[in-house]
């Protein structure tokens, strides 16, 4: 996968009923919000230090969780995710990070650079044979969405993360102003 800036989500517990769906749940320690994907090459220590210095003045904030969604699209989903309702400060963090990366000459390989859809992936879609909307409908029927809808999650740091298959490792952590 590669390097990305994101927020690890530790305060979210997904109901065990998710195991009844045709999905592979995300390991709890890998749950995150991707702010911007960089690519196979990291930004380097100096650029990462600049990112930390710039976002350190942004106050801590809370996000609110929305409905379940299929991404990247309903027609060809790869993941089951939770939408983020109030994403203004996440968008601001993203803009700051992208600006620093571009100013530093770091190439950004984010396919969704112009289409930021903040979300928390909770599972990978296991079966391509199932009608995608059935996954959402089943998740709602067994109460997964009800458990997470409108829940608030604190955001107090952004991390540079290295992802290799199912292993997500925090390389650096930049605290917001709390």
In which order are the strands of the major sheet placed?
2-6-5-4-7
- The geometry reads as globular
Helical proportion? Answer: 10-25%
The overall pLDDT, averaged over residues, is 92
Total strand segments? 9
Which percent band covers the strand fraction? 35-45%
* Tally of individual helices: 4
What is the CATH class designation?
Alpha Beta
CATH topology: Cyclic Phosphodiesterase, Chain: A
Number of domains: 1
Q: What is the SS-derived class?
A: alpha+beta
Main beta sheet: 5 strands, antiparallel
Please specify the SSE layout and strand pairing.
Layout: E1 2-8, E2 23-25, E3 32-39, H1 45-55, E4 61-71, E5 79-84, H2 88-103, E6 119-125, H3 132-141, H4 144-148, E7 152-155, E8 157-164, E9 167-175
Antiparallel strand pairs: 1-3, 1-8, 2-6, 4-5, 4-7, 5-6, 8-9
Helix pairs in contact: 1-2
A few lines on this structure:
Helices cover 24% and strands 35% of the residues.
What does this structure look like?
- This protein is of the alpha+beta class and 178 residues long.
- The chain has a single domain, classed as Alpha-Beta Complex (Cyclic Phosphodiesterase, Chain: A), CATH 3.90.1140.10.
- Helix content is 24%, strand content 35%.
- It has 4 helices and 9 strands; from the N terminus they run E-E-E-H-E-E-H-E-H-H-E-E-E.
- The protein has helices at residues 45-55, 88-103, 132-141, 144-148, and strands spanning 2-8, 23-25, 32-39, 61-71, 79-84, 119-125, 152-155, 157-164, 167-175.
- The strands form 2 sheets. Strands 2-6-5-4-7 form a 5-stranded antiparallel β-sheet. Strands 3-1-8-9 form a 4-stranded antiparallel β-sheet.
- Helix 1 (45-55) packs antiparallel against helix 2.
- The longest helix is centred in the middle third of the chain and has 16 residues, at 88-103.
- The chain is globular.
- It starts with a strand and ends with a strand.
């Amino acid at each position: 996968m590669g390097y990305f800036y994101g927020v690890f989500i530790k305060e979210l517990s997904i109901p065990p009923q998710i195991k009844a769906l045709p999905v592979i749940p995300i390991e709890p320690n890998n749950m995150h919000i991707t702010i911007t994907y960089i690519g196979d090459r990291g930004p380097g220590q100096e650029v990462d230090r600049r990112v930390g210095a710039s976002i350190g003045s942004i106050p801590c904030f809370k996000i609110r969780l929305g409905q379940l969604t299929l991404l990247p699209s309903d027609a060809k989903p790869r993941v089951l995710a939770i939408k983020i309702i109030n994403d203004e400060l996440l968008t601001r963090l993203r803009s700051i990070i992208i600006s620093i990366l571009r100013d530093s000459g770091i190439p950004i390989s984010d396919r969704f650079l112009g289409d930021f859809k903040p979300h928390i992936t909770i599972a990978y879609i296991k079966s391509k044979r199932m009608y995608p909307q059935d996954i959402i409908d089943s998740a709602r029927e067994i109460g997964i969405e009800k458990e997470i809808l409108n829940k608030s999650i604190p955001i107090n740091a952004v991390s540079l993360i290295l992802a290799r298959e199912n292993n997500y490792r925090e390389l650096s952590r930049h605290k917001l102003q709390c």
